[in-house]
Amino acid sequence: MMQKKTDEIEKYMKDCTLCPRNCHADRMAGRTGYCGMTDKIYAARAALHMWEEPCISGCKGSGAVFFTGCGLRCCFCQNCEIAIGKDGCEIDVKRLAEIFLELQDKGAANINLVTGAHYVPQITAALDIAGEQGMGLPVVYNSSGYEKVETLKLLEGYVDVYLPDYKYADPLLAQQFSHAADYPEIVGNALAEMVRQTGPVVFDEEGYIKKGTIVRHLILPGHTRNSIQVLKYLQRAFGTQIYISIMNQYTPVYEQEKYRELNRRVTEREYEKVLNAALELGIENGFFQEGETARESFIPAFDYEGVGRK
């Protein structure tokens, strides 16, 4: 079994087409594609994370593993230290499996894979090892949404909960902020595959999600029209099959020279406008944020906690 996984990892790393960028980089030879990563796994944090949706973090905390690198690389990235930067500690598949088991021992409600698309073959290999050693937590795949259906199919049977973003309904905005004019089409197809795999959302007796898809939308300052278009699409395409998480926690992480509207937080009026639109659209299954949520505490310290061996 492990030899098959090793062969699969080598196949994808030699000619990488795991994400929609289709770089064809030979990552085994040390080349990097759009994600900025070779075949080596890098992670910047593995710890109980308390700031996800209530059904994911709850009181226990979500066992979040933050991977270095990203195939989308938005100009306003909230985790830019690891997504666009190089912060991270090198680990292997065996160590990743150990991390999953250690998070389970700490009482995590689930294993939360944050931005792991460029490591999918290694992640499934690590989940196989951890499963053989008693890891039985639900697995959450936490993603930008910019995913290939073919790659998502590699995760079938491994992932219980998909937690993708849907950032843009407007291709022009997607091109400006993420150099991905095809984002709306790619994400629409990816969401359909995620929902096919998980089916409707299911919770356990404690209120934790066991199965299903929660789609996140981060409102961007000055772009409520895009947000409303996102909600319209999600409601029309998926209705009550998914939950929608509408977030106002956007935090400017550095000064934008070209897109100056991104240098501020979302106003209360902007957030209320989007929430009112959600109500008018008849969206029933959802989460929203109360109070002053746009603050630095939502961005964890990428200090390698839980990554290195003790």
Automatic annotation (TrEMBL):
InterPro entries: Aldolase_TIM, MJ0674-like, Pyrv-formate_lyase-activ_prd, Radical_activat_CS, rSAM, rSAM_sf. Gene3D superfamilies: Aldolase class I. Keywords: 4Fe-4S, Iron, Iron-sulfur, Metal-binding, Oxidoreductase, S-adenosyl-L-methionine. Its cofactor is [4Fe-4S] cluster. The keyword Cell inner membrane does not apply. Belongs to the organic radical-activating enzymes family. PANTHER family: FORMATE LYASE ACTIVATING ENZYME, PUTATIVE (AFU_ORTHOLOGUE AFUA_2G15630)-RELATED. This is 4Fe-4S cluster-binding domain-containing protein. It comes from Blautia wexlerae.
